[in-house]
Amino acid sequence: MSGFRWAPVPGADRYELRLRRRSSGQVLEHARPLVRNSRRVQPVEPGNYGLSLRSVDARGLENS
User: Fold this and answer.
1) The pTM is what?
2) Which residue range forms the structural domain that includes residue 29?
3) Which of 24, 27, 29, 48 is the Cys-Cys partner for 19 at CB 3.0 to 4.6 Å?
């Protein structure tokens, strides 16, 4: 995985990204706060992973 990009969310002040191994649920990377709409992630072994991203507005309200 070389990196991820997403469309900016109207009203978002920042973003939080989480990379998780699906077999164990282990969180491999939890990046916050992200202020740009792209992120490089750490190298991982072949396998099945989940990636989640949520926006956070200036008041700290999260969108999941």
Assistant:
1) 0.71
2) 4-58
3) 29
